[in-house]
Amino acid sequence: MADPAGPGRFITLEGGEGAGKSTQARLLADWLGGRGIDCLLTREPGGSPGAEDIRALLVTGEPGRWDAVTEALLMNAARRDHVVRTIRPALSAGRWVICDRFLHSTLAYQGYAGGVPLPTLEALIDAAVERTRPELTLVLDLPPGDGLARAQGGGSGRETRFERKGEAFHAAVRDGFRRLAAADPERCAVVDAGGPASDVAAAIAAVVSARLGIAP
Ligand code: TMP
Hints:
This protein is of the alpha/beta class. It has one domain (10-212): P-loop containing nucleotide triphosphate hydrolases (Rossmann fold, 3-Layer(aba) Sandwich). It has helices spanning 21-33, 49-59, 68-92, 103-113, 118-129, 144-153, 167-183, 197-212, and strands at residues 10-15, 39-43, 96-100, 136-141, 188-192. It has a five-stranded parallel sheet with strand order 2-3-1-4-5, with helices on both faces. Helix 4 (103-113) packs antiparallel against helix 5 (118-129) and helix 4 crosses helix 7. Thymidine-5'-phosphate is lined by residues 17, 43-45, 59, 75, 101, 105-106, 109-110, 162.
């Protein structure tokens, strides 16, 4: 269901470290742009000035700097600001919003991997987003070893707090995303992120065409 805040449509990309979400978000925005659809590309944690300030607290420092409940509170504080100041205004203006991570990351990272009960997280997420929920969630799936190797090959060197949480944590994140997708197949689609970026982009375009009625 489209967001009641406006005529725009809301798509999220999810997945573990190094799955190529940011690249794919950009390619999807370009693909939609080529079909005359104006997109806002944004990310979490972040996407508004206040949420970007909170992001710096979350992604830097030692892995144990915050426990999983504190992470969930900070993530949802950032999310609230992002939803109110960035996502809803764009949807109201009729823009499509493509967001690199959103609520499923909280359920996978702080829930399945971090051990916070899912109902606790759902209550925090409800408060943060109310009815602003993605219509389509693309889960980019990759074995965590491959993703961590890719993630360590690039990106900002300081934003490594989650990458350093260890292989068992990242295996639980992957498992969590797959379970979340299986439990909500109408909203979620799992895409194999193991191939070249152009193949992944084509798979994503096929899902968006089929689910959202865009000509391929
Ligand atoms: P990024 O590297 O994809 O920009 O995301 C930063 C980190 O934040 C990433 O390791 C996943 C983590 N994260 C959570 O743990 N919970 C969340 O709700 C979100 C949005 C991100």
